[in-house]
Fold this protein.
Amino acid sequence: DAGVIQSPRHEVTEMGQEVTLRCKPISGHNSLFWYRQTMMRGLELLIYFNNNVPIDDSGMPEDRFSAKMPNASFSTLKIQPSEPRDSAVYFCASSLGSGSSGNTIYFGEGSWLTVV
Amino acid sequence: DAKTTQPNSMESNEEEPVHLPCNHSTISGTDYIHWYRQLPSQGPEYVIHGLTSNVNNRMASLAIAEDRKSSTLILHRATLRDAAVYYCILRDRYNQGGKLIFGQGTELSVKP
């Protein structure tokens, strides 16, 4: 099993540029999560999808952030325009099922974003 | 959301047992207790979870107090590779779907 695959692993971009982070969940998983991690705020849940439908986006910081899941095997998190305070590690995660709290959530290795 | 309280950091010696405590005095009857850990420069990974009874797996053991207001993650023989941040998380079976809400966790350091 390849696990959750994220790209790019590292990105440095200039303020104002658009950033697109990509995620391929584990095959067969129907829940997908985007998290952001910073030293100041720790791990924050941004949004999660179940069966490709956004269920809870209350963690999305502002309109500059958007996430899509066009199919079961792909999701994107877009930041437009990017700002230095968006610098963080962004994790994608997936799991099988949504309501059962025993389902393990598997995380990718993260996308390390630096906005200068 | 029910909250958990963990020590910010703990130290252990290699090959000795480690007991990582977690307090969750406001736990509800439908909350599962989950533990995840995050190794340096990696994403979090699942360790163990339980509801009422103690649980064992190849990675660790989970001891849950009878009143469920606290729990302890037990690493039986710490290795250098166990140095990580350990998160104790309550996961409501019905109201939160499958999401995990992370606190600050306990940073475990292991000395050779």
Notes: Chain B is about 0% helix and 45% strand. The two ends of chain B are 38 Å apart (CA to CA). Chain B touches chain A at residues 31-32, 34, 36, 42-46, 49, 87, 91-94, 96-105 (CB under 8 Å). Chain B has a mean pLDDT of 92.
